[in-house]
């Protein structure tokens, strides 16, 4: 399948896609992004992505490059032309290209919009969910507006790399007061000894994860007890279960943190319920179900 990109109104071969070196995302990380999943050619929870995107743009006073309806058409056209059936859409909006100056450029400067659709076989998550993944913890080194999905991800990159070097799937970030914030690219959940499923309340300290939002509703509808409250690193390590959620890892049990087993070291019942509810929701919205024994490509 052709590797394509959408750049400022045109779909071009990825190798020929380019933006100005004066683009403010390149100079100042002055831009926002979204990552949405694609199942059977359909975007999952796209309206929620549009809502979060609009919020990020509004918080940073960046103009939307086009209407929601036009953006959907452009995104779906790229997905179709790229031949992606199951995968992810990356979308980035920047404050545009202008002579380098910290202050915002002239309000007429057009915002930059680029998108890439790439295949990802979500079926591979099923066997991973059955065994679970590992994590480490690290200091959260980010700024004080983590609720904005800004492309300024250097602290997340450094945290993820630390995890990778430790052989871990995710790095769970901790504020200086010992409070757990989130994973380097995931929302973190803990399950109390009494079975309550806990995740942090939304604030400027964490990204409003869309899998988080979706899963809270699914769990509550299924009769599970969910609490949105802060918890510290001791509670994380003492939890009966830990799991993370994100677009690329819809739900992933974490079975050890820093080399110490979580619970009995296997994915627990609440985590597996969360996995099942999310797959059911994906099927409900898109008709897609994971294939057993998938080769891992798409
Ligand atoms: C820091 C951070 N937290 C949480 C998430 C999960 O968000 P979502 O469920 O919308 O993918 C992400 C996803 O990229 C992230 O980067």
TrEMBL record:
Alphabetical keyword list? Amino-acid biosynthesis, Branched-chain amino acid biosynthesis, Pyridoxal phosphate
Catalytic reaction(s) noted: L-leucine + 2-oxoglutarate = 4-methyl-2-oxopentanoate + L-glutamate; L-isoleucine + 2-oxoglutarate = (S)-3-methyl-2-oxopentanoate + L-glutamate; L-valine + 2-oxoglutarate = 3-methyl-2-oxobutanoate + L-glutamate
GO MF terms on file?
branched-chain-amino-acid transaminase activity
Query: What InterPro entries does the record tag this protein with?
Result: Aminotrans_IV, Aminotransferase-like, BCAT-like_C, BCAT-like_N, Class-IV_PLP-Dep_Aminotrnsfr
NCBIfam families, alphabetized? PRK06680.1 (NF005209)
Q: Which domain of life is it from?
A: Bacteria
**Protein's job:** Acts on leucine, isoleucine and valine.
Enumerate the Gene Ontology biological process terms: amino acid biosynthetic process; branched-chain amino acid biosynthetic process
Q: What is this protein called?
A: Probable branched-chain-amino-acid aminotransferase
Q: EC number(s) of the enzyme?
A: 2.6.1.42
Q: Which family does it belong to?
A: Belongs to the class-IV pyridoxal-phosphate-dependent aminotransferase family.
Its annotated pathway reads: Amino-acid biosynthesis; L-valine biosynthesis; L-valine from pyruvate: step 4/4; Amino-acid biosynthesis; L-leucine biosynthesis; L-leucine from 3-methyl-2-oxobutanoate: step 4/4; Amino-acid biosynthesis; L-isoleucine biosynthesis; L-isoleucine from 2-oxobutanoate: step 4/4
Listed cofactors = pyridoxal 5'-phosphate
Q: Does the keyword Metal-binding apply?
A: no
Q: Which GO terms describe its cellular component?
A: cytosol
